[in-house]
Fold this sequence. Notes:
The structure holds two protein chains of two kinds. Chain A is mainly beta. Chain A has strands at 3-8, 11-12, 18-25, 33-39, 46-52, 57-59, 67-72, 77-82, 91-98, 102-105, 109-113.
Amino acid sequence: QVQLQQWGAGLLKPSETLSLTCAFYSGSFSGDYWSWIRQPPGKGPEWIGEISHIGITNYNPSLKSRITISLDTSKNQLSLKLTSVTAADTAMYYCATRLPWFDSWGQGTLVTVSS
Amino acid sequence: DIVMTQSPDSLAVSLGERATINCKSSQSVLYRSNNKNYLAWYRQKPGQPPKLLIYWASTRESGVPDRFSGSGSGTDFTLTVSSLQAEDEAVYYCQQYYNAPWTFGQGTKVEAK
C-alpha cells in the first residue's frame, strides 16, 4: 500500500477557495487513479474526483464546475482546489488511491467553512 | 448516479455474536462480461479514514480477519461479522465502483452490547 500524507487550510470563509495537497510515499501503487473524497460530519463519504498517472481527470458532476485536481509526478503530490466554498462544503477531506476500490487513504483534513 | 442504501442504520450486537449488514444498489453492479460484482465494504473507526475490508463483493483484503465475509450479487449484498469483537465497533460502508460517480452507502453503525 501507498503512504499518503495530506495538508491544507482548515478554516475558510464562504466564497474562498479550498486548497489541499496530498503527498504519496513508499509502497507500490498498481492502480491508475488518485482520488479525493470528502465526508461531511455524521454522513457517508462522497467521491469528489480523480486523476490518472497520465493526467486524465474524472470529476463528480455535482462538483465539476468548481473542482480542479492536478498531479505533480516530480514531487509525488496530488492537489485539490474547490472554488466558491459554502457551509455545505464543510467536511473531512481525504486523498486516496483507487484500484478500482479505494485502497490507501490519507489521514484526512477537516475543512470548516464559516463566516 | 447509483444510489447505495444500507440497512439497518445501526445495530447492537453482543460480543461473540453475528452482525449482518445489508446494502442495496439502485441498479445492478454485476458486470456480466467477467461475472464480477463491483462492490466493496469498508470499516471506519472514530477519527480514522475508512479501511478496506472486502472487494469484488466477497474477496477479503489481505490481513482482514476471516470473521468478515461478503456475499450477494446484482443489487443486494451482505456483510457479515461472524463473531463480533470489541474492535469491530465502527461504522461500515458499502461502495460501488461499477459506474462513476463512485458512490457509498450512508453507513451502518455497529455497537457492542
